[in-house]
């Protein structure tokens, strides 16, 4: 990566009018909570939605996103061309839950465009403040610039936010909100530990939301995840969708429940693989893979079916089957499982989803959660967490504290791509 402009407090430099990343980094153990504010020409937000922080990590326009890259940095991604026309500045700031910024070692702000470093600002001469504006992106004529700021607020995050027009009651309410969301994320992660969501777990989630008094995009995202989990559980128990027109010639009593683009992955004994693009069409009679060298697999010959990362594994008694890579492996696996159960007359719409031996005992979930700090062990994200078997369960991995870890969905899928 090429070196960009080296800035001091108050200095500025031009930046491309495109997507840029403002990275705030520090030495391990400091725990900086980064945020961003979208300001108009009068230096104020338009409303509270213009405050992007841990409870609202993406602006509604999609042009400003916040992510913790790792335990020692946070990244604010800004699509300058995608910002509303009345947004004149994007301020990048941060706060500390305890202590002050003068004790944060190696605090630095950098601006990156693609693989090119645009600017860097080692923050120096820091006062004992608990909230700080690190820098800002602002319009200048037809272009954009970045200014190194380094201005602190002794009144903390609430004082900083209030000065920019955000309605904040006090610092403790912001911290309480963050703690409530972390607890709610734990409730959701524990519910998904056995890959089955039941109605009582959705009810318990809603009761927890009511009791904590939290709301916002982060809560809505967790609610959507819970409701989708419940929908998939019901599908896997036999409440199957139907595809109106698959374009295939079917038998008189045949119904199609899944029709999706897929890549069939065949693994040979020497470890090599062959990938073939096509479609998976699953009916109540059989699973078809439609391609130049397609195949069919009657449900009576299926001996194993499971989701595995971005694929669905279907193993049969014959030479067909294997791994099918699809866009939504969770949904595809739920539909195929439901078809298989119905075809073998083991599913009724009145019984709850059956849990398998991957179910994680509560005590183990608690130990893993505490050990990993309620965050992804790879990227430190605290959203969309999943319990992951280090050695996959399908390959003999134990359901134990030593073989379990917390991963966010993105890192879990990335791990699957490496296996």
UniProtKB/TrEMBL annotation:
Stretches assigned to the HNH nuclease domain: 363-413
InterPro entries xrefs: HNH, HNH_nuc, Stress/Tellurium_Resist, TerD
GO molecular function: endonuclease activity; nucleic acid binding; zinc ion binding
Family: Belongs to the CAPAB/TerDEXZ family.
Name assigned to this protein: HNH nuclease domain-containing protein
The species this protein was found in: Virgisporangium ochraceum
